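To: structure desk
From: M.T.
Subject: fold request, one chain
Message: Could you run this one when you get a chance? Sequence is below, nothing fancy, just the single chain.
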Amino acid sequence: VLRSQSERAEGGDDPAVNWAQLMNHFIESPEIAMFEGSEVTGGMGKAAVTSHDKVPQVHRSNFVDGAKHMGSGIEKISWIPFIDMLTTVEGTESVYFWSPSVVLDAPRSVTPTLPGDCYDQTGKALWTVLACAWDNELQDLVALLSNRLLVVWRLRNREKGQFQQKRELRFNAHRAEGRAKGGEKETYWKVFLASIDPKTGEDLHKDPKKHMNERSEAAARREKRDERQAAEASLQLDVWWNANLKQWVTTDHHGRLFFWDLRSNDGLEVVQQPTKVLSAHTKLVTSHLELSKFKFTTCSLDRSVMLWDNRNLSAPEVKIEDMTGSVLSQAYLPLFSSLVTVGCEKRVYVWSIDNTAYRGVRAKLSAHQANLLQVSAGQRVFITLDEACTCILWDGATLAPLQTTNCTALGPRHAVVLPTLGRICLAGRRLNFFDGNEQGSIALGAAPTKEQLAKAKSQEKEGASLKDRAVPRWCGLAPSRGSMLSATEAEVRLHTRHSPGQSRAIFNAPEGDSISAFAACDALSCAVLGTAKGAIFFLKYRSGFAMKVYPGRPEDMEEYQAGGRGAGSGGGGGGGNSAATAAASAAAGSAPTSLEGAPLGSDAPAAPAPLAGADAAARVVGPTVARSGRNSIPGGSAAAAASAAVLPAAPGAEIAGQ
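Reply: Done. Structure tokens follow.
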């Protein structure tokens, strides 16, 4: 405070700082404003913003999942809006489909049909499903199996949930040579996809005559070793669908991302190479998420989040490494341009990423008491789940916690928001559903009903306040402080830097009056506004504190105008048709007056000046300023000369200084 306001501190060896200086420093200091949105100040005062503190937004649904789950637990779960079904991977040989609204005795399942060598002697499958993904354009379902097979189905009947198996491909690898960074040659495993024989299960690209030739024992051992290493190098652990690139994306335990275009050949080529391989991550990629037409993000166990551009995949556009633990899940709220990531730590990270670029960290939320597992987003809210089975529903606009639920009895390990239904699914051993209330379901993404729309429309007509209908007057950004102000005829609001949609009112127009003009001065950290009744307010730029107030006319506007017309039409104006007299009266009407309405330097009260004459003089002479003695009087040269005769200079009447 002494450094920033040294000119105001009292002299002496130990200068004192008064309370007003300290408060002014905290309110107006641009250095402190730079910490807005950090972990320390990001949550200050945000609990009072929301009105849902004590109203539960979601409640346990009456829908009960009574069907038998074949696996020991749900490993992966996803929501497919096109068929209104949830898909689960439970460590078995099938992909299961669940309805969130219809009680089923047994789920619908899709099981691959593979060659005989994929089963044991009893007919039990020798594989498990690792992951599945959905192509919403062609209605294709892809499953990634533990035996390195990729199986493709196509939807045939939406109502019955029937799929037809189309293709079976196997991931494989072969040795290739390349140049290292030092220029030396090195060998690596190059992954590719190969079609298999549906009867024998052998890769179609292999030459059967090659195996008929007699081989030595060393050659056979070497071949088996290469096959084992190729199988380890080509094993894929997860799969996603990139709708903008129209390609499938898989990842291995090294964090490499492989892009596969299965539409181009549709089975015509026996061997298919990946269209692109991304090696920026060093460990397993846990999530792939599309943000916009050209942007997508990936998160990994290597404690990083990467933003990619489809038009240039040579390197990530942005690499975020602020996390202290592995990143497990991510979700995006397009309405607020916010990317939410969670992982093996207790904090929730919110990043600001729009359609064009990465804007920085928005907030770090620390409401959880255990390491986080998953995050899922709706339209205006998102939900986070931690290892202690605690779920927190967050407001996407204010980042305030709306509801905290302890789900220890349910034991959930996954959380999925069903936006079109206004529901939340918590999956553990079984599926548990939570329904949103009237406001919560809409915030999750459900379309409002006709009754809700009619009710909202009636409330808008009946309870629309002046602030909602106020005409905008001014909007501007302070260059040195980064704070944005907006002014309407009803109020002045201060907007936050990281989210301009969040704001608070710092000034409200007086009752019966409205704001007619507004201007701000960033250099002086002040703003000045004028009202329709002539009041002038000098405010602090960010706090709204009124430093000086000049009250306006206490009379009603209609009465004042009526009085002005009467004075102008009578004979008390000092002559009717003389041009000099008209200019003098106009200048006198526009001259500065004291609080009582008398001209400065005069002791006698003055009658209200004619508005028409003052407005006419202002229109004729323009905005120039003429000075006479120590008085500064608005008006042109003719008006200034006339006003000099009407208003003699008074000692100390320095209007510009005041």
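Reply (cont.): Residues 58 and 436 are 4 Å apart (CA to CA). Let me know if you need anything else for the meeting.
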